[in-house]
Specification:
- With about 325 residues, the protein is an alpha/beta fold.
- The protein contains 10 helices and 12 strands.
- The strands form 3 sheets. Strands 10-9-11-1-12 form a 5-stranded parallel beta sheet, with helices on both faces.
- Helix 5 links the parallel strand 6 (about 125-130) and strand 7.
Length: about 325
């Protein structure tokens, strides 16, 4: 992949895997398929995934992003984002006579199901995650009376439970693996009988991308992570790069946001992208770097990814007809 003479010594280490994970790919395709199948508009509650470029592209095709279900007109189709929603949101959609498509990532759904199961068994659930993140709000809504949010190791001292022998931890899927385990260790020290979830809650793609960025940090003086400022997994990758020894690491949405001053004294740039980032944005950064002498690109592969998820089952039904029937039902009631 050489794009310059080797004598200059400048190069880019390109992480693999990077970019879209299976859950994001599924969610984005679901919006596109819904627009193709049912026509615009398709309403989407919150950003389908946390990426500016993806959201703008889907808006141009006819998707309308809203913050609250109440903003969606009666008789419309609304899609729930990959981050998942609380049961109360499904109830609001039903009350508003809306046809729904649930594009929640299956790995997030797994955490929701774990929360429901442990709540039924009357456990106190310690949910490791960031306050205000859509995924945390959705999971907490499954069993609010049983769930306590733990936002990192510094929160552990304040955590109280009813019965230290019936405590389990769950986590947001997009966290730093290292920080999460640090939090878990602190919780286990306080609650020695703490139970772990039956399988990892942090998704495979988040873990793989963090492993890859650690590898980049071994040799790169600068690591660039392509991703949006509200993308939890992208932000974590910057933190992981710095913790792994990279002298500099920055998050950018687009190549135009890169500051040329970052390149001062840099021979090797590490480049990767968050799990909600299309590869076209990475290609633009490679082009930008190539124009500044970093044309020698070497792929650093740390894992193979072959996981795919089937599209939401609702895309196999006539949702426009269902929405019209819901409105007709309400009209009949009146």
């Amino acid at each position: 992949m050489g794009r310059m003479t080797a004598s200059s010594g400048r190069r880019v280490l390109l992480a693999a895997p990077r970019g879209y994970c299976a859950g994001v790919d599924r969610a984005v395709i679901a919006v596109e398929k819904a627009l193709e199948q049912y026509g615009a508009p398709i309403y989407v509650r919150h950003e389908i995934v946390h990426n500016k470029y993806v959201v703008r592209t889907l808006e141009k095709k006819g998707a309308i992003f809203v913050e609250q279900t109440a903003e969606v007109p009666e008789g419309s189709i609304v899609m729930f984002s990959a981050h998942g929603v609380a049961p109360a949101v499904h109830d609001q959609a039903a009350a508003g006579k809306l046809a729904t498509i649930d594009a929640t990532c299956p790995l997030v759904t797994k955490v929701h199901k774990e929360a429901v199961r442990f709540a039924k068994e009357d456990y106190d659930i310690l949910l490791i995650g960031h306050e205000g993140h859509e995924e945390v709000i959705g999971t907490s809504g499954e069993a609010p009376e049983h769930i306590t949010l733990v936002d990192g190791p510094s929160d552990v001292a304040q955590v109280e439970v009813r019965d230290p022998s019936k405590v389990v931890w769950l986590s947001q899927t997009t966290l730093s693996v290292d920080e999460t385990m640090e939090t878990v260790d602190a919780l286990k020290e306080k609650f020695p009988q703490l139970i772990s979830p039956p399988s990892d809650d942090i998704c495979y793609a988040t873990q793989n991308r963090q492993i890859a960025v650690k590898k980049l940090a071994e040799d790169a003086q600068l690591v660039i992570v392509v991703g949006s400022k509200n993308s939890s997994n992208s932000i974590r990758m910057v933190e992981v790069a710095l913790d792994a020894g990279a002298p500099k690491a920055h998050l950018v949405d687009f190549a135009s946001e890169i500051d040329e001053a970052w390149l001062e004294g840099v021979d090797t740039v590490g480049l990767t992208s968050g799990a909600s980032v299309p590869d076209v944005l990475v290609e633009e950064v490679l082009e930008w770097l190539g124009e500044r002498g970093y044309g020698d690109v070497e792929t650093v592969k740390t894992a193979e990814e072959s996981i795919t998820f089937s599209l939401p089952k609702e895309l196999r039904r006539d949702l426009r007809a269902e929405a019209a029937a819901l409105v007709a039902e309400r009209t009949g009631e009146k």
